[in-house]
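Hi Y.,

Following your request, here is the sequence exactly as I used it, all 535 residues.
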Amino acid sequence: MVASSNFQLCVVALLLAAAPRLTLSQVSPQPTAAAPAGPATSAPANPPPIRREFRGVWVATVGNIDWPSRRGLTTAEQQAELITLLDSAVSLHLNAVLLQVRPAADALYASKIEPWSEFLTGTEGQAPSPWYDPLAFAVKEAHARGLELHAWFNPYRAGTPDQRSRHAANHVSRTMPAVVKKYGPYLWMDPGEPSVRRRTVRVVLDVVRRYDIDGVHIDDYFYPYRENDRRGREIAFPDARSWRKYRSAGGQLSRDDWRRHNVDLLVHELYTGVHDVKPWVKFGVSPFGIWRPGNPPSITGFDAYVQLYADSRQWLREGWVDYYTPQLYWPIADTPHSYSTLLHWWVDQNVRQRNIWPGQYTNKAGANGEHGWRAQEIIDQIDSTRATRGASGNVHFSGRAFLENPDSLHERLRAGPYSDLALVPASPWLDSIAPAAPLLTLHPAGVQLPANGPDTLHTPMRVTISAAKKSAPFLWTVRTRSDTMAATPWTTAIIPATEDRVPLPSGATEVVVTAIDRAGNESAPARLTLPSPAP
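Below is the corresponding structure, written out as tokens. Let me know if you'd prefer a different format.
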């Protein structure tokens, strides 16, 4: 927020008595090249541009990784912890939170389809008490802080090894047992069953309809990572039933291609379904960071195309996403899995020019042991992203990294790459029409004499911001010039569009405001020249 202070009392009183309220329509237009000849005048100085960069953080709920910190916290404790995470994001100048709301066919929100998550109360199906809706709370609190809130779903997982309570009566393992398979220590919905795909799409679109989220996000769990038995032998995924049904219906694909096709169908249906409901809600995927070994040639390691049946390159090349967050969880200098090498490869695949916001394993920073990283690695990776044309941000795994603050990571990010504010990059394929410029009304500083009591109340100069007709902005950018601050004459704030009164700093001579819509489009600037204080 922009700081505020008062003018000298005598100046304040004069302004209150004599200065009219200024609106945008009363401000003279800037001179143009076509203006009539006249005395030379200098054009108003333009404020510095605001960086366009996605700065997100995953907040994982499965296993209580990030939030809530443990099962069974009170409502007040859960809310306080979530606010701490959001405030941490704001203090780091992040602009988005990706909150896991469906870790295992359960819900961290009020759902008529799936049961309340055990990770909230300790008992699956049991609502928080006193009752509240965590997702509605998260959206409200995130938006109040100018943060985007993306709802993160796991599409197929139905049970985890640390499940402590019995599955609720409305859990998919009890309502649709034929499509839920035991696989190693997990329960997994069979991606080959069309009813599973329909259920996942229904769950996601239910959230899109009922909550004011900014994005839908799915991670890298498609067909499960492979499990071994006690003898170390690989366990085959038990999808013989759905495979036989496919073949009996005349299907011609090989089993591996059929599995990939099942995942392709889900990704495409989610992308189109989300936009059919709310065109401005972004759809993002965070696949395993390596599509296939040998792509590019120096890369080795896990083959997600073969083992997870995830043809993640195709989803990007087809434009079935609005943003892509490949999980690049290796150091830059790790040649077989290099962060920078992989990032350049993914950018080269982005023929539809979607947003590329790679994921970072930020929890590694400052971790003990041989596998821990220096905090500088995270900063170097951000620098690498910025140096890669076609990439425009990062997502950090995960929220606790910024709370535990290993190796002074929080302070180093805040003083370094995240020292400035940033706007989420635009998604022009969703909407390329900029909102109308806002309307500004200036309220001069003043003095109020209370009816009772000796104290005088002072009101700072402030500006009221109003949206133009048929315009529904999400954020305001407010940049204020003060000639008394020669080194850094401009101050910048990004605030929710629900805030309409902004106090201005002492000595301010000009304010420039723009509107930002849900797709990231920015309006033309509205500008006010402020009255100078009396000498």
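The two ends are 28 Å apart (CA to CA).

Thanks again,
Q.
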